[in-house]
Amino acid sequence: MDLCDRLTDVRTRIEKAAQEAGRPSGRTTLVAVSKTFDATAIRPAIEAGQRVFGENRVQEAQGKWPGLRAETPDIELHLIGPLQSNKTAEAVALFDVIETVDREKIARAIATEMQRQDRKLRLYVQVNTGLEPQKAGIAPDDAEKFVAFCRETLGLSIEGLMCIPPADENPGPHFALLAKLAQRCGLDRLSMGMSGDYETAVALGATSVRVGSAIFGMR
């Protein structure tokens, strides 16, 4: 299959998973993860109608997305990788959504930059559902308190929660935990599921899935 066929296949699988779970059609946004792929590789996805993309690194995204957005202004760009505080200004200038708000220092830096640049980004709190020491994210037990801090102290509008389950575990319980935490926080957006498990994520309530290799092929 070429990229267009793979993109169509992913979209079809998302809708089928939603239908089988009894969820309304069209409620899950596909975030095409274009990290490590250059503008030439991304353009066919844009030409096929894909408008929402995810990148892991600010510097890499700066090298390709300003040009692509000049060609297609209605692109929506998500930062789905860890954000370093020294890259906050660039991230706020370039991205529409930051899905990896995971500590007080970053939350404060984002709030400061959004005010300075007069930009309002949509924000997600990343939750480390597997409590993996090498992985970013707020501990599940701290999620409610951290969301409240972002909202009440910093005035940030947190849209939802995001997670990346441990690679060697069944993702289902992690997705279910994220949905439960979101409900407690009064949030209705869940960014969860990648190429290997996005159908499970859709069945458990994902409102966006982050799919890379199933669309673009192996890196």
Q: What are the defining features of this structure?
A:
globular, 9 helices, single chain, 45% helix, 219 residues, alpha/beta, 8 strands, eight-stranded parallel beta sheet
Provide a short characterization of the protein structure:
With 219 residues, the chain is α/β, with parallel strands linked by helices. 45% of the residues lie in helices and 17% in strands. It has an 8-stranded parallel beta sheet with strand order 7-6-5-4-3-2-1-8.
Please characterize this protein's 3D structure:
The chain has 219 residues and is an alpha/beta fold. It is 45% helix and 17% strand. It has 9 helices and 8 strands. It has helices at residues 3-20, 39-47, 58-71, 88-94, 104-117, 143-153, 171-185, 198-203, 213-216; strands spanning 29-33, 52-55, 76-79, 97-101, 122-127, 158-163, 189-191, 208-211. Strands 7-6-5-4-3-2-1-8 form an 8-stranded parallel sheet. Helix 7 links the parallel strand 6 and strand 7 (189-191). Helix 4 crosses helix 5 (104-117) and helix 6 (143-153) runs parallel beside helix 7 (171-185). The longest helix has 18 residues, at 3-20. It is globular and about 50 Å long. It starts with a helix and ends with a helix. The mean pLDDT is 96.
Topology:
Blueprint: H1 3-20, E1 29-33, H2 39-47, E2 52-55, H3 58-71, E3 76-79, H4 88-94, E4 97-101, H5 104-117, E5 122-127, H6 143-153, E6 158-163, H7 171-185, E7 189-191, H8 198-203, E8 208-211, H9 213-216
Parallel strand pairs: 1-2, 1-8, 2-3, 3-4, 4-5, 5-6, 6-7
